[in-house]
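Onboarding guide, step 5: your first structure request.
Type a short instruction followed by the sequence, for example:

Predict the 3D structure of this protein.
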Amino acid sequence: MSGGKLLLIGTPIGNLSDLSARALEALRSTDLLLCEDTRHTRKLLDHYGITVAVESFHDHNEDDKAAKIAERIRGGARIGLVSDAGLPLLSDPGYALVRLAREEGLTVEPISGPFAAALAVISSGLPPLPFLFAGFAPHRSGERRDFYLKFRGFDATLVVYESPHRLIESLRDALEVIGDVPMTMAREMTKMHEEFLHGVISAVIRQLETRDMIRGEVTVVFDLRDRTVAARPSAEKLREEFGRLRDDGMRRNDATRMLADRYGLSRKELYKLLLEEDS
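The system replies with structure tokens like these:
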């Protein structure tokens, strides 16, 4: 085996002082540094006075570039891979390259660094184990509800990344699907304006609705264990809720399963209530 290797380098999620000594050494020693966004990574490199060759490597080009990069590693090159923040691959590019490197027997060396999901979990005050990291929630409401529905029923802590301008709508969808469970919103972790909001989902939504704008990187932690059965609504209200879910694009079986679970009903009981007329 040549001296070539692929270095997966963890970088700070905000505070540049979080770069480890080993990561700093790795950045300085690479023959080429693959970056999700070269402009973003340049700020980190300039801060530490590092001069290395950089190349963009993102979701739209990694499949095309992976084979050529693997060839360079076979030839002895030390290739570094970084994301804009945190660990590569986790909601960031790199999987295709690492998979190819493993298939070809190339050396892959991980170099630890911050991971926003883990930092949010340990600072949330919610049970830390087991936790599920689901990456970014989908952009559209119907797809988000399907997304949250996949995790409903897990006795675990769920961690989700969300865009600040979609945060409130995403929390409303989560409330609709997983119920008013305890949660923590972590915003701008390790940065000057770091903030944590704790409470049940509805309470956090009310706090956020008072703001003109929400800025920064957001990580949301939900405790899926703490589910309460909501009070059973009238048949009319059930039909309205069922219709709203269907109008939002949720599949019939998913909508009935979610409503039955939320109100502690069997599907047979739910169907009967959906069909009956209010007196």
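Each response can be followed by summary notes, for example: DSSP finds eleven helices and ten strands in the chain.
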